[in-house]
Amino acid sequence: MGTPLLFLAAALPFSLVSVTAVGLRTSAAALLVIPALVFWMVLDLAIGVGIVCAVIPLLITAAIITKHVGVAWIWAMTVTLFVVGWALQIVGHSCCEKRRPALLDNPIHMLMSPMFIVAKLFVALGFRRDLAALISEWPRRKSPLR
Q: Which of 7, 91, 103, 116 has its CA 20 to 30 A from that of 83?
């Protein structure tokens, strides 16, 4: 639950900035997330599409919030979502996985977190049995970056 809150916290301030790209008016948040979405789809199309399906409602939520509240409230919500998101990350990892979040060791893991979450969801739903063994052994393996 922490990762979507952290994404929303990051998207809110960028949703305040309106940009025109390829003749379409959008927010900087929507524009800035495109490279990451393409990256995830290149790595695994099905999981990338799953992430896109999760990101769209979060971007819409950020757009609705920025349309209805002032800038001070946006920043207050951003800080609150950031603190709550990290608290959920730390508590969830310590209770469920008995280890600290990988994001604390290497911030680049933030790019992989959505993929890992969607992959775990797909495995739980029985869609990606090919990933089940990899995900089940993930906490036992040491990352080469540690």
A: 116
Beta strands in the chain (DSSP E): 18-21, 24-27
- Nearest in space to 116 (alpha carbons), one of 99, 103, 100: 103
Q: Report residue 94 as tokens.
A: 């310590």
Question: What is the SS3 assignment for 20?
Answer: strand
Buried b (16+ CB within 10 A) or exposed e, 44-53: beebbebbee
What's the CA gap between 92 and 98, in Å, rounded? Answer: 9
Could you give the CA distance from residue 96 to residue 113 in angstroms, rounded to a whole number? 16
Nearest to 139 by CA among 111, 121, 120: 120
Angle at 28 between CA 112 and CA 36, to 5 degrees: 20
Q: What pLDDT is recorded for position 131?
A: 82
pTM, two decimals, is 0.81
Torsion 19-20-25-28 (CA) sign: negative
In the chain, domain spans: 2-99
C-beta separation of 45 from 118 below 8 A: no
> Which tens digits make up the pLDDT trace of 16-73?
999 998 899 999 999 999 998 999 899 989 999 999 999 999 999 999 999 999 999 9
